[in-house]
Write a structure and sequence with these properties.
Helix content is 54%, strand content 17%. The protein has four helices and six strands. Mean pLDDT is 84; it is low at 10-17. By secondary structure, it is an alpha+beta fold. The chain has two domains: 44-121, no CATH class; 124-179, Head domain of nucleotide exchange factor GrpE (Nucleotide Exchange Factor Grpe, Chain A, domain 2), CATH 2.30.22. Helix 3 runs antiparallel to helix 4 (102-120). The strands form two sheets. The chain has a three-stranded antiparallel beta sheet with strand order 1-4-5. The chain has a three-stranded mixed beta sheet with strand order 2-6-3, with no helix packed on it. Strand 4 (160-163) and strand 5 (166-169) form a beta hairpin. It is elongated. The termini are far apart.
Length: 184
């Protein structure tokens, strides 16, 4: 019985059942429903924003992880490029009579494997000879001809490389005028 009495008192003291605290009439059921619906919509919109923020966070975190891996890979390969240059220079100047020696063949195999490993990680040489000078891929060390004229790469002083379509090291080049054919 006491429980029933407490429930009745609780219902009567509710501002919705009795009216507002300052004597306003009680809100109708449709007004209550509209208020609850608006609150539900606000909560749902907040939840959707949180979900979108989390999806953006995951995407951004994944992109940062990929960039970190690529940066570490580029840093390591950049440190290995002088070794590759020295190996290519040493083997490029090798006299033909030494090419048949077993140890020289072994070094050539090591060079090919080293080069293949770098290629596997996305390293590719920048082709320069005979191409138009491109300041994004080439660094002009020597220039022949008049300033301001169109330039073509006429010599390669140090090979340049790309790593995954980004220039890792520009090619050091000699630039000059394009060679004109006799018909011009």
């Amino acid at each position: 019985m006491e429980e029933l009495f407490n429930n009745e008192n609780a219902q009567e003291s509710s501002p919705l059942a009795k009216g507002g605290a300052d004597g306003e009439p009680a809100a109708s059921a449709s007004e209550q429903l509209a208020a609850l619906s608006a609150e539900k919509d606000q909560q749902f919109a907040a939840w959707q924003r949180t979900q979108a923020d989390f999806a953006n966070f995951r995407r951004r975190t994944e992109q940062e992880r990929v960039e970190l891996v690529l940066s570490a890979e580029a840093s390591l390969i950049r440190e290995l490029l002088p070794v590759l240059d020295d190996m290519e220079r040493a083997l490029g100047g090798l006299p033909p009579e030494l090419r048949g020696l077993t140890w020289v063949e072994g070094v050539l195999i090591i060079q090919r494997k080293f080069r293949a490993a770098l290629d596997l990680h996305g390293l590719s040489p920048i082709e320069a000879l005979g191409k138009d000078f491109d300041p994004y891929e080439h660094e002009a060390i020597v220039s022949e001809g008049e300033p301001g004229e169109a330039k073509v790469v006429t010599g390669e002083l140090q090979k340049g490389y790309r790593l995954h379509d980004r220039v890792l090291r520009p090619t050091l080049v000699k630039v000059g005028q394009p060679i004109k054919s006799k018909s011009e």
